[in-house]
Amino acid sequence: MAKESLKTKNTPAKNSIQADFCMLADALRQKNAYQEAASNYLNAILINRNDENSYYGLGLCYKALENYAKAIKYLEKAAEIKPDFYEAYYELGLCHLAEGIPCGAIKSFVQAIQINPEKPEAILQLGIAHEMCDEADMSLMIYQKLIENSPKFVKAYEKKADLLMKLNDYKEASLLYNKILKLNPEFYRAYLGIGTCFDKLGKRIEAQRYYRKFLLKKPNSHKAPVVKARIEKLKTIGKNEMPFNIV
C-alpha cells in the first residue's frame, strides 16, 4: 500500500515536469528550433507516454526537418491516443503527400474530414492526393463540391483551374480564374493563368493584356522576365505558331 501511495503522490509532480517539457518544446518549435524542440518532446514522452500533444509536436518537428518517415510514426501515435485528433490526421496526410504516398494521404484526409467536415483545407488536400493518383475526374469532383460548399474558398477555384489547364481545357480554366479575381482582385496568379489560357487559345491580344496585368501586380516575380519576353514575342508571332506555356 505504501508503494502504491508513493506512486500516486509523485504523479502530479511528474505531470508538471512533463507539461513543462512540452511547453518549452512548443516555444522552441515556434522559433523554428526543431532539433531542440524534438529533444524536449522526447523528454515529455519519457515521463508520459500517453500524451498525444507531445507526439503531435514531435511529429511536426520531424515534418519541418523533412524526416517524413519519423513524422508519420509520431503523428500516427498521436492519432492512436486521441482518435478524434483532426490536426494529427491532417498533418499525417501532408506528410504522406510529401513522401509520395497518395494512398496513405487519402486515408488520413478522409479521417480528418470525418472528424471535422467543416474545414475545407483537408478536402482540398484530398483532391490533391487524388491528382497524385492520376484520378483527375475524382479531383475535379472534389474541387467542385468544395466550391459549392465554400464559395469564398479561393484555393478550390485555383486548384480546379490548374487541373483543367493540365487537361488542356483552357476555356473552362479561364472562367475559374476570372471567378477568383471577382473574389480577390489582388490574386496575381489568376492574371497569369488567364493570360496563359488566352495564349494557348491563340488569343494574342487578350493574352498580352492579362500578362501585363500580372506584371503590374507582381513586377518582381521570378516569372516576370519570361512573361515580358512572351509579350514581346506575341507582338510578332504568326497566327499558326504554337502557343507558349508559362504557368
Report on the architecture of this protein:
Keywords: Repeat, TPR repeat. InterPro entries: TPR-like_helical_dom_sf (IPR011990), TPR_2 (IPR013105), TPR_rpt (IPR019734), Ycf3 (IPR050498). This is Tetratricopeptide repeat protein. It comes from Candidatus Scatousia excrementigallinarum. The chain is mostly helical and 247 residues long. It has a domain at 13-184: Serine Threonine Protein Phosphatase 5, Tetratricopeptide repeat (Alpha Horseshoe). It is 77% helix and 0% strand. It has helices at residues 2-30, 34-47, 52-64, 68-81, 86-98, 102-115, 120-132, 136-149, 154-166, 170-183, 188-200, 204-217, 224-234. The protein starts with a helix and ends in a 13-residue tail after the last helix.
Relevant terms:
mainly alpha, Serine Threonine Protein Phosphatase 5, Tetratricopeptide repeat, disordered N terminus, TPR_2, repeat, TPR-like_helical_dom_sf, TPR_rpt, TPR repeat
- In CATH, what is the homologous superfamily of the domain at 13-184? Tetratricopeptide repeat domain
**CATH-defined topology of the domain at 13-184:** Serine Threonine Protein Phosphatase 5, Tetratricopeptide repeat
Q: CA-to-CA gap between the ends?
A: 72 Å
Shape descriptor = elongated
Proportion in helices: over 70%
How would you characterize the largest beta sheet? none
Mean pLDDT: 92
Structural class: mainly alpha
Secondary-structure element pattern, one letter each: HHHHHHHHHHHHH
CATH class of the domain at 13-184: Mainly Alpha
DSSP strand (E) fraction? under 5%
The residue ranges in which pLDDT falls below 50 over 5 or more consecutive positions are 1-10
Keywords: Repeat, TPR repeat
Organism: Candidatus Scatousia excrementigallinarum
Protein name: Tetratricopeptide repeat protein
InterPro entries: TPR-like_helical_dom_sf (IPR011990), TPR_2 (IPR013105), TPR_rpt (IPR019734), Ycf3 (IPR050498)
